[in-house]
Every structure is written in C-alpha cells, then in structure tokens.
Design brief:
With 150 residues, the chain is mainly β. It has one helix and eleven strands, in the order H-E-E-E-E-E-E-E-E-E-E-E.
Length: 150
C-alpha cells in the first residue's frame, strides 16, 4: 500500500511539473511578429527604349543593344545576364558602376558566356535559359526591363 501511495505522489508531481514547464503560457507565443517591409517593384521602362538581345548560334556569346535611351531620359544603366549551364546558374553583369549614357542614346555590348583571360576564352557548354535584367536610372527613378530567352 505504501508503494501505491508513493507511486501516486510521484505521478502527481510529474503531471504538475509538466504543466508548470509546458502548460503555462509564457506570452512569447502571443507576441506579434512585425510586418515585413515591402520593397517597391520597379516600374517597367517605356516603349521608347528598344532592348535587343541576340545570343549567337553556339550560345557562347550574345550581343546586347539598347537604343532610345535619350528619349526615355535615361542617365545610366546596369545590366545582369543570368544563364543556366551544366546544372549551375552563372552570370555576366555591367560591372561595379553604372554605364553612363552618351549623346547617341545607344549602348552595345558583346557578352561572353564563359571566362576570358589574357585573350583566351573558355566558353560554358550547353547554355540553357538566359535571363536579362536591365535597370535604367532616370530622373524619375529606376525603371526595369526583364526578359527570358530559351
């Protein structure tokens, strides 16, 4: 009988301890999570800007030509090209500072899909989906162009 009483007391202590540790509300689970800040989306660039992106047949290079920049009030621009190759995503970009628009209002760049050093290029093979993103800096804010090429 003494063992039964000791067992019941131990059981009651375990239940009370569990309620004390896990059953009480600490208030932490009712704390509100702050609402995330929303980054505004960039407005698309207008039709006066013509973006032409032409990968070569072997998909080792592409020519990027952008015109109509003066008419659109573009001061500078930045571009980024992401491409899939051998299960990886690689990229090419305009560099660390924006490209200034001159009076011609046109920019043309030849882009390599691979690595070039000392005049020797090692091109990536099996280039798949290509995504071009161009950010146009204007007096009224940043505008964007985004297009995918298969």
């Amino acid at each position: 009988m003494k063992n039964v009483v000791v067992g019941v007391v131990v059981l009651l202590l375990l239940v009370a301890g569990g309620w004390f540790l896990f059953g009480r509300s600490t208030g932490a689970d009712t704390e509100l999570v702050p609402e995330p800040k929303v980054t505004p989306a960039f407005e698309p660039i207008g039709d006066e800007v013509d973006v032409e992106f032409k990968p070569n047949k072997a998909r080792t290079k592409a020519t990027l030509t952008i015109s109509g920049l003066t008419e659109a009030g573009v001061d500078s621009l930045e571009y980024e090209v992401l491409y899939e190759t051998s299960g990886l995503v690689k990229g090419v970009n305009s560099g660390s500072s924006p490209i200034e628009v001159d009076s011609s209002g046109e920019i043309e760049r030849e882009l390599d899909f691979g690595t070039c050093s000392s005049g020797v290029c090692r091109y990536d093979k099996d280039v798949g989906l290509i995504t071009l993103v161009v950010r146009f800096n204007t007096s009224s804010g940043t505008k964007i162009f985004k297009q995918e090429y298969n």
